């Protein structure tokens, strides 16, 4: 073995020993409420298809129509110009969310990395919730700004750090937070964060990846639901979850979006999204806007699922949304739990470090508006039985 092979082998072996090995599973119908794995039907609690739109015939038909314009965009938007559909989509997005302007980006990961590294530089400070998504952490790293990580949802800690940055004389500061946390299903105290933003004169970026389509009267997101969206300088979200398609957006004042056109490297140096994706997104937006019943269904099913788990004695952390963790702690027990669930016809992935902090391994259940009630109920029976067998409850 050469030194590369030794390093790779040792890393994989140590991850396996700690119960941190990852598996790529070949799956059919991966976004649907029932998926196929190894020839077996499983109830799917692992997809982010919260409103069930990923299989919607109108979205698929729209994608087929858009495919007539070509299979791919073939160049970056600044090089080739952009499709009229893209222009209309961005106008639609801005008016839907009542922001001045919008920019569509390839995906949420590239959006966060691009936005943060373009607005922040070496002389700036960024305040980031400790449980923010990895794409936020990577964007901050790339920016080289001074990184202040505040304890999850802890406003006292955030304020302490804001004061510290002020005494250091750092001029430009930005607070960044997920609105719904992807591994915990809890929500950020956005109103209080806005209060601190105003008190300390910072900018604010929120990531609505798991809230877009799900919260707000028409699915605009949590900031709208809490009526603080005017205070959000950069409002980012994805089309890959509740919208059931792919891609991401950022909403902001016109000049801020123009600034991104000039500086955001993950926008400038990459090929535009293909027409099929744009067509699908536009149709999905219409369905999200009209999707109040889907949001109500999702909320009822999520509430029931959470209540039943809590009654049975499980620790679901601070979840109040459609993302529901069953907190276990030990990595190997979590993995065993997930394997036993698969044997019982339920797909819920074991979430382990480095996705979550060490010692906080969990199963994560994501609910969908189109999960059948009987499937939810039978899943709960299996979860409780396995929980008792493994002495989690
Ligand atoms: N932000 C958050 C909070 C996320 O959970 C995710 C995806 N899991 C992303 C950004 C990245 O989005 P995408 O999958 O579109 O790259």
TrEMBL record:
Molecular function per GO: 8-amino-7-oxononanoate synthase activity; pyridoxal phosphate binding
Biological-process GO terms, alphabetical: biotin biosynthetic process
Catalytic activity annotation: 6-carboxyhexanoyl-[ACP] + L-alanine + H(+) = (8S)-8-amino-7-oxononanoate + holo-[ACP] + CO2
Domain Aminotransferase class I/classII large: 41-383
Keyword Zinc found: no
Pathway: Cofactor biosynthesis; biotin biosynthesis
Record-linked InterPro entries: Aminotrans_II_pyridoxalP_BS (IPR001917), Aminotransferase_I/II_large (IPR004839), AON_synthase_class-II (IPR050087), AONS_Archaea/Proteobacteria (IPR004723), PyrdxlP-dep_Trfase (IPR015424), PyrdxlP-dep_Trfase_major (IPR015421), PyrdxlP-dep_Trfase_small (IPR015422)
Cofactor (UniProt): pyridoxal 5'-phosphate
Modified residues (N6-(pyridoxal phosphate)lysine): 241
E.C. designation(s): 2.3.1.47
Pfam families: Aminotran_1_2 (PF00155)
Keywords from the UniProt entry: Biotin biosynthesis, Pyridoxal phosphate, Transferase
Subunit structure: Homodimer.
Job description of the protein: Catalyzes the decarboxylative condensation of pimeloyl-[acyl-carrier protein] and L-alanine to produce 8-amino-7-oxononanoate (AON), [acyl-carrier protein], and carbon dioxide.
NCBIfam families in the cross-refs: bioF
Alphabetical list of PANTHER family matching this protein: 8-AMINO-7-OXONONANOATE SYNTHASE (PTHR13693:SF100), CLASS II AMINOTRANSFERASE/8-AMINO-7-OXONONANOATE SYNTHASE (PTHR13693)
Similarity annotation: Belongs to the class-II pyridoxal-phosphate-dependent aminotransferase family. BioF subfamily.
Protein name according to UniProt: 8-amino-7-ketopelargonate synthase
Originating species: Thermoflavimicrobium daqui
Lineage: Bacteria, Bacillati, Bacillota, Bacilli, Bacillales
Chain's gene name: bioF
């Amino acid at each position: 073995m050469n030194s590369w092979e030794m390093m790779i082998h040792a890393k994989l072996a140590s991850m396996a020993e700690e119960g941190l090995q990852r598996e790529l599973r070949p799956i059919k119908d991966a976004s649907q409420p029932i998926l196929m794995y190894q020839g077996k039907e499983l109830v799917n609690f692992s997809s982010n298809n919260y409103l069930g739109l990923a299989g919607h015939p109108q979205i698929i038909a729209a994608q087929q129509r858009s495919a007539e314009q070509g299979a791919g965009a073939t160049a970056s938007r600044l090089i080739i110009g952009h499709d009229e559909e893209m222009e209309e989509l961005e106008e639609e997005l801005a008016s839907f969310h009542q922001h001045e302007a919008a920019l569509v980006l390839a995906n949420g990961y590239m959006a966060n990395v691009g936005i943060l590294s373009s607005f922040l530089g070496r002389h700036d400070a960024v305040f980031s919730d400790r449980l923010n998504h990895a794409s936020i952490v990577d964007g901050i790293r790339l920016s080289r700004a001074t990184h202040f990580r505040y304890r999850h949802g802890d406003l006292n800690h955030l304020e302490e750090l804001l004061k510290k940055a002020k005494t250091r004389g750092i001029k430009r500061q930005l607070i960044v937070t997920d609105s719904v946390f992807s591994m915990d299903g809890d929500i950020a105290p956005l109103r209080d964060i806005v209060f601190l933003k105003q008190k300390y004169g910072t900018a604010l970026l929120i990531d609505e990846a798991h809230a877009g389509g799900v919260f707000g009267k028409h699915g605009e997101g949590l900031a709208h639901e809490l009526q603080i969206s005017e205070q959000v300088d950069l409002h980012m979200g994805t089309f890959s979850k509740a919208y059931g398609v792919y891609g991401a957006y950022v909403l902001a004042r016109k000049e801020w979006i123009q600034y991104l056109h000039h500086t955001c490297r993950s926008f400038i140096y990459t090929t535009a999204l293909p027409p099929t994706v744009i067509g699908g997104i536009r149709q999905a937006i219409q369905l999200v806007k009209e999707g109040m019943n889907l949001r109500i269904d999702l909320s009822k099913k999520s509430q029931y699922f959470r209540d039943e788990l809590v009654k049975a004695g499980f620790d679901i952390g601070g979840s109040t949304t459609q993302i529901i963790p069953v907190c276990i702690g030990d990595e190997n027990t979590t993995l065993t739990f997930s394997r036993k669930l698969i044997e019982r016809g339920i797909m819920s992935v074991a979430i382990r470090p480095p996705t979550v902090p060490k010692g906080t391994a969990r199963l994560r259940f994501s609910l969908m508006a189109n999960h059948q009630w009987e499937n939810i109920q039978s899943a709960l029976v299996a979860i409780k039985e396995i929980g008792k067998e493994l002495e989690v409850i």
